[in-house]
Each structure stands twice: as C-alpha cells, then as structure tokens.
Design goal:
By secondary structure, the chain is of the alpha/beta class. The protein is about 25% helix and about 25% strand. The protein contains six helices and 15 strands. The strands form four sheets. It has a six-stranded mixed beta sheet, covered by helices on one side. Strands 3-2-1-14-15 form a five-stranded mixed beta sheet, with no helix packed on it. A two-stranded parallel sheet has the order 6-8. Strand 2, helix 2 and strand 3 form a beta-alpha-beta unit. The longest helix is centred in the N-terminal third of the chain and has 15 residues. About 40% of the residues are buried. The model has no long low-confidence stretch (mean pLDDT about 95).
C-alpha cells in the first residue's frame, strides 16, 4: 500500500497564525505510526514570495517522510528555489520548478503551473516536455501521479475558477499518450474537491491557512469568500496493490 500525504496553500506570511497551522499539520504527519511514501505540498508556500517567508517555510516543512514542494501563484521562483531547493543552484532563475520522485511502485511528477507575475496558471512548453520525458522514462506498469498548484478545470468556485490553469488541452493530449498517468493532484482552491480531468481523477487538497467559502455557503455575494475559522486540512492518496486510487481527507487540530 502506497500512501501519499497531500498538503497545500500554507501561505507563510511571518505571522503566528500561518506558522501555527502549518506546524500542526506537519506535526500530525510526523506522529503517524506509518512511514508515508511521500508528502506533497502543492504551492502557495510564502504568501508574499519573499526570502523571509521562505526562511520560515524551510523550518516548517521538515519531515521524516520524502517531501516534495512546488510553487503556486503567490510564490516567486528564484526565491523559492534558493530557499527550498538549494541543490538547484545554477539553474536559470526564471526556469519552472519541476521535480520528480521515483518511489517503490509509483512515480510522482510535480509540475510548476505558476506564471511569474500572474495569478492564473499555465504549464509552459518546457514543463510539458519535461513531463512527457518523465512519463516516457517510467515503465508502463508503474502508476504516475502528476501534481501542480492550479486545477486545470473549473470547480464552481468563481474566485478560484477565474485564475485556474489554462491551456489545459495540451496536458489532456499528453495524458492520452500515456495510459499509466493515473491521477492529477492540485491545490489553489482552499477546498477539498474531487472531480475528473482528461478522464482521470483530479484531486484537490484543502487549504492549510484557510478554507474557501463555496457560493452556496455565502449569505450574499458581497460577503468574504474565505473561512478563517475552519481547521487546516490535508488529503491522503492511497494506491492499493490492485492499482486502485482512494483519497481520504482529514482536518487537523491547531
């Protein structure tokens, strides 16, 4: 059984609230009586994209489990890479931050869907070529999970849908060529969601720093769309021996 923890949107901003919520989630994962195959953090790490935020995030995002982190629309690639990926020194500062984890019985490809200076998402040609190479190099019997920050479909949450991942038809075409691509994992929406994209599961992790108020939960359109009082959440994605993928969502007490 392969278990991957999926965390997203910690938005470290230098204030105690975001740090406390992130610390609670990471402590929960550390205290599990089971070794996870990976911990995945899908973006919006430093709320302001500044070195100070990444310095705090670097101290918080420590795990005994293999850890993989990608940028979101709040992140800045160069500062992200310098603080969280020191082994990436010498890489072009504006290059997409793409990473792969090849575990026992699975591959996790983490793509950079951020667009420098913009809130919406897009996978650059460089990223799609990289992902195509990862899928090609992975044996067909090994399932591949592909993660990024921005969901490539509307989720019926107007605030997020307007800044989702665009150009998604290119990603769908790539998925058609690689049948061992098993699922897509995303963040950005600050709400636990499960839907499909390109005929495959698209699983969205809840937010750590806050939760999104869905349209039918808002008393009026003018009300704030962010829930600050709900607890932080995370997802567990489980790949069974039969190849079936199951996702469980959990909240964590701060």
């Amino acid at each position: 059984m392969i278990v991957i923890a999926h965390v997203s949107d910690i938005h470290v901003d230098g204030e105690p609230r975001s740090a406390d919520r992130t610390r609670a989630v990471m402590r929960y994962l550390e205290e599990l009586p089971y070794d996870l195959a990976a911990v995945l953090v899908t973006g919006d790490i430093a709320d302001l994209g500044n070195p100070e935020g990444y310095a705090i995030a670097r101290e918080l995002l420590v795990s005994r489990h293999p850890l993989l982190v990608c940028p979101g629309n709040h992140d800045v690639r160069e500062a992200f890479r310098k603080s969280l990926l020191p082994e990436g020194a010498g890489v072009r500062p504006d290059a997409p931050v793409n990473q792969v984890l090849r575990g026992e019985g699975f591959t996790l490809a983490l793509c950079d869907s951020s667009v420098p200076g913009e809130d919406e998402g897009y996978l650059e040609d460089e990223t799609l070529e990289w992902l195509d190479g990862v899928l090609t190099d992975t044996p067909h019997e090994v399932p591949v999970l592909v993660g990024f920050h921005h969901p490539p479909v509307p989720l019926h949450t107007p605030y997020v849908d307007g800044i989702r991942q665009f150009g998604e038809e290119r990603l769908a075409a790539l998925a058609d060529r690689h049948p061992h691509l098993t699922a897509f994992l995303a963040g950005h929406a600050h709400t636990a969601a499960a839907t499909t994209f390109a005929g495959l599961p698209l699983l969205v992790a809840p937010g750590v720093v806050s939760a999104l108020r869905l349209p039918w939960e808002n008393p009026s359109p003018e009300d704030e769309h962010v829930h600050l009082t709900l607890p932080p959440g995370l997802a567990f994605h489980i790949l069974g021996e039969d190849g079936r993928l199951t996702t469980h969502y959990r909240t964590v007490t701060v």
